[in-house]
Prior knowledge:
Elements: H1 8-12, H2 20-32, E1 36-41, E2 47-56, E3 62-72, E4 77-83
Antiparallel strand pairs: 1-2, 2-3, 3-4
Amino acid sequence: DTSNGKGGIIKSLEFNNISKDDFVNIIFKQICGNYIYNLRVNEFNDRLFNVCIELPTKNGNIRKTTVALKYKPDCGEIDVVTMT
C-alpha cells in the first residue's frame, strides 16, 4: 500500500496535476487566512510553523496534508521542511 510507510504520503499524492504555482498558492491562502499552527522558534533560531492543506491523491480522493514550513525573515522566503 503506497499510503503507508516512509514516503507513502508523497507517493499517494497526484503531483502531476498540481503545478508548483498552484501548490504555493494553496499554502499562501492558508497563511493569509491565519490557518497556521504550531508556531515556534527552535534551538537554531529557525521560525517554524505548520499549515494543513488538502491535495488530490492518485486514486481521486482528497488527502489532508500537514506541511511544515520555515520562515526566513532575512529574505522573506518560506521553505517547505516536510509534509505528513
